[in-house]
Amino acid sequence: MKPGKKMLTGILVALAALCALAVFGLGSDVKGILDMRYGIDIRGGVEAIFEPQDLNRKPTEAELQTAREIIETRMDNQNISDREVTVDKNAGYIIVQFPWKSGETNFNPEDAIAELGEMAELTFRDPDGKVLIQGKNVKTAAPETVTNNGIKAYEVALSFDQEGAKLFEDATGNLIGKRMSIYMDNDLISSPTVQTKISGGQAVITGMKDYNEAKSLAEKINAGALPFSLATSNFSTISPALGNNALNIMIYAGIAAFFIICVFMIGFYKLPGVTACITLFMQMIIQMLAISIPQYTLTLPGIAGIILTLGMTVDTNIITSERISDELKKGASIKGAVTYGYKNAFSSVFDGNVTAAIIAAILMALGSGTMLSFGYTLMIGMIVNLFVGIWVSKHLLLSFIENKKFNDMKHFRVRKDIKTIPFYQKKYIFAIISGVITIAGIAGCFTKGIALDTQFTGGAVLSYSVSNEADTEKIQAAVEKETNRPVTVQIKEDNMTGLKRLSVTFAGNAGMSPDEQKAITEAINTTSDKVDAKLSETYVVEPYIGAKALRNAGLAIGLALLFIIVYVWVRFSAISGLPAGITAMIALFHDTMVVFFAFVLFGIPLNDAFVAVVLTIIGYSINDTIVIYDRIRENKKNDSKMSVVDLVNISTSQTLGRSINTSMATAICVVVIMVASMYFQIESIIEFSLPMLFGVITGCYSSICVAGTLWAMWEKKKEK
After folding, report:
1. Beta 131-134 vs 138-148: how paired, if at all?
2. pLDDT in tens, 469-502
């Protein structure tokens, strides 16, 4: 279909259909964005305490951590990315918090816990009932479809750890022709016949009638790979920490930010700005559907991923609009300017999206919980952006200009003459600015200290019985003022007794002295005459973000940075790719430090929001830098004799408008959300949006003033 009336109608009809799907969904299997699953902070959820069963000793710390990781993996598989899973080593139990399902109406925690599946122990037994292998020795179980002589068969592929591989080899060698039964506690779930001795720790269970049966068995095996059986000893509901209006406030703030961006884009770029707004709206709808349909939990890092992808969608349209302006400046026709504008913009858009997708892919492979949520949201955004931001946007604009009414220069912005700014010559000024920021940040670390949230440090928990009048926001403010420590406050209601408990968690696993507990209790009771808080128990919990998850998050960030260096090295070999990759990495490190200093100087505890902001700024900043590198590559191709200094100065000046406009559009989103959260005192959004604003600013600054000049300095040194 060629651009014109039919294509324009087709795109608008597709957009209307997406809107209808987003609002109404499609039956019970395809849920619209009104039926999204929201995090605990927004909608509340469930807390369950799991204790080992039939264990005549205290569970070891390693066993508790193994059980914790299995529960977290299970929740990842069910797209429950907003959760807190921790252990109490002293008491020997696991505490799990997770949000309600979308559409939940009876809010029964006992029913909700069933979503987590069976907490039974998996065992492999011989025909006499002797336990041969335990579930803890199973690494993974996955359903597979195989084809033999054109006939499909379904099986479950098993992978054992080193100990399990040896036990499985011995067991299969002794049971050839006999059955090896698989049990969940005392319930038989499968009983395959051993065909041959199996070595190497890899095996398959055959004989499933269809893929769903294989999937069901694999899920049961994965679910039962626990070091012991677990049973729920207590469960309760958790109130939302952000208040009932938090979601509505953020929705209204997002709508306001969208309209401000539209006004900016249309006012500055005219008709290309109109197409940008339409494609931005389409991107938002698809992005939300990608979360609501598989019922991914919408988390704070997920919101970060949405902001980044929407910022990159705006950036894609700004890059193409600037390129169209360049072509019109050269005297091209409107249609020719649009065609060549999108063609010339493609390389920088493609490279920017691929580098962000690299981060997303690594996070999805190694991440868990909120990091998996961020990676998924970002990956979907990059895929959609390449389709919507390039193909849909281009054909929408071409369809518009097929109409004579819009095929007029007054509907486009023609670039004015660009003045070349001597960025390279100002390199020492930039070095002083970055140096002052770094010194001030380091000084702030020593004077203010680095605060870690309970997600990283674990915490001391004070549990109170309270009346119905307890206001969590007022209590949190009062306790933080009294203790000068990061505090998390939640209301929990016991499902069995109906009694409400106030849970106050302090970062750090240090206990509380009797005098400190008394002062905190008095501070809570000063918030209202009717609170009547009485301390019932104190205990210490491990970090919500486990050591393995934290290592994986660090590994994911490290690998993402390494892959970006390699990608830039390969893609920008025409301008000495390795120096380009390393200098881009130095700029990213600069941005990461600025975000870190913002958290420290504003006294914001480091938590998963910090990781989310850092990842967002890495993706945002590298995209900014790649646009400049792309223009350097293009200018060098056009004039191979141009000096390194001129290349940097001219290329950075040519892309300066795009860099500033993209940063301004992204900053609008962040500022609107930040102002709304400050006005309505939504603390967790403030702690996310304030450092994000600094990150957006420094991302723009480092791309313009740091990366390019460092690359030029490197190249100049090579010439000597």
Report:
1. unpaired
2. 677 778 888 888 888 777 878 787 776 666 778 8
- Could you give the 3-state DSSP secondary structure of residue 390? helix
- Residues belonging to the chain: 720
Instruction: Give the pLDDT confidence score for residue 274 in this predicted structure.
Output: 92
Helix and strand numbers, DSSP H then E, in the chain: 22, 17
Give CA–CA dist 482/490, Å, rounded. 18
Q: Backbone phi, then psi, for 493, in 5-degree steps?
A: -120, 120
At 96 the pLDDT is 87
**Of the given ranges (164-178, 294-308, 355-369, 663-677), which has the lowest mean pLDDT?**
294-308
Give residues with Cβ within 8 angstroms of 222, minimum separation 6.
70, 73, 74, 77, 138, 140, 141
Q: Rg of the chain's alpha carbons, rounded to an integer?
A: 29
Per-residue pLDDT tens for 513-560?
778 888 888 888 888 877 778 887 776 766 666 566 667 777 777 887
Q: Count Cβ atoms below 10 Å from residue 135 Cβ, excluding itself.
A: 24
d(CA 304, CA 519) in angstroms, rounded, equals 38
Distance CA 666, CA 660 (A): 10
Full-model pTM: 0.72
- Give Cβ neighbours of residue 587 (< 8 Å, ≥ 6 apart): 621, 625, 702, 703, 706, 707, 710
**If 0-12 CB within 10 Å is exposed, 13-18 middle and 19+ buried, where does residue 1 land?**
exposed
| 339 and 577 Cβ atoms separated by less than 8 Å | no
Residue 162: its pLDDT value, please?
87
Distance CA 58, CA 228 (A): 11
Distance CA 99, CA 105 (A): 13
Among 119, 120, 153, 158, smallest CA distance to 138 is for: 158
How far apart are alpha carbons 294 and 219 in whole angstroms? 17
The reported pLDDT for the residue numbered 357 is 83
Q: Which residues contact 452 (CB under 8 A, 6 or more apart)?
A: 486, 507, 508, 605, 606, 607
Average per-residue pLDDT for the chain? 82
CA nearest neighbour of 453 among 505, 511, 503, 507: 507
Residue 331 CB neighbour total at 10 angstroms: 9
Q: Is the per-residue pLDDT at 586 higher than 60?
A: yes
Give the whole-number percent of the chain exceeding pLDDT 70. 92
CA 253 – CA 638 distance, rounded (Å): 45
- Name the residue among 565, 580, 589 with its Cα closest to residue 628: 580
Token pair of 604 as six digits: 């914001």
Which of 604, 618, 610 lies closest to 698 in space, CA to CA?
Answer: 618
- The enclosing H or E element of 353 equals helix 334-366
- Rounded Cα–Cα distance for residues 181 and 189 (Å): 8
- 626-648 pLDDT, tens digit each: 889 988 988 998 888 888 999 99
Quick one: average pLDDT of 498-511? 74
At 652 the pLDDT is: 92
Q: What is the pLDDT of residues 196-231, one digit of tens each?
A: 888 888 888 877 788 888 888 887 777 666 777 888
Is there a contact between 240 and 48 (Cβ–Cβ < 8 Å)? no
Tokens linked to 509 = 């696993």
DSSP assigned state of 241: S
